[in-house]
Amino acid sequence: MTPTHLPGRVAIPSLPEQTRTPPSPNGLECFNAAPADEVRRTLLTCLRSPRWADRIAVHRPYPDVDSLLAASDEAAYDLTPPDLAEALAGETLPVLPEGAYGAAHTALNAANAAYEAKFGHAFVICLDGLPPEEALDHVLQAIRSRLANDPDEERVLTADELRRLARGRLVRCLKGAGL
């Protein structure tokens, strides 16, 4: 099932597990050996950019996870503005952490509405390595801070957040050999 962009929502990835287990070599072996269309579908769950996914898929096999992650970063840095817009359009908001109070939802929705009105796309932020109890405050602080950016500066920050999201999602796919 392909997620769709939910207007007025912030793209916050699911919080990662707090363990720092490196991806298994078997995950990389599966990634390298899987059919191209299967790898492409998996990659599109990491970043909704066909150009990025194709570039990663065609350069297989990767000798190690670090090489794959370096290729992922390079491909993300090379995305054009239309590629970035396409990737941003695919970002969605998972459910806020359990126990988030109503005022938090209101504050987040208001901050995101102001962000989308100014920049014309979803707010994205990578929360990898952040304790779950700090996520909501971190997102609210970041969105408010980034509202002060000019559009060019924000485009650079957004592209970097997408790159970081793709990297973290790719590592999680390899850990689970989700192919």
From TrEMBL:
Pathway: Purine metabolism; urate degradation; (S)-allantoin from urate: step 3/3. Coiled coil: none annotated. Transmembrane segments: none annotated. Keywords: Decarboxylase, Lyase, Purine metabolism. GO terms for molecular function: 2-oxo-4-hydroxy-4-carboxy-5-ureidoimidazoline decarboxylase activity. GO terms for biological process: purine nucleobase metabolic process; urate catabolic process. InterPro entries: OHCU_decarboxylase, OHCU_decarboxylase_sf. The keyword Lyase applies. Its EC number is 4.1.1.97. SUPFAM superfamilies: UraD-Like (SSF158694). Residues 32-89, 104-170 form the Oxo-4-hydroxy-4-carboxy-5-ureidoimidazoline decarboxylase domain. It catalyses: 5-hydroxy-2-oxo-4-ureido-2,5-dihydro-1H-imidazole-5-carboxylate + H(+) = (S)-allantoin + CO2. Residues 1-25 are annotated as: Disordered. It comes from the Bacteria. NCBIfam families: PRK13798.1. This is 2-oxo-4-hydroxy-4-carboxy-5-ureidoimidazoline decarboxylase. It comes from Streptomyces viridochromogenes Tue57.
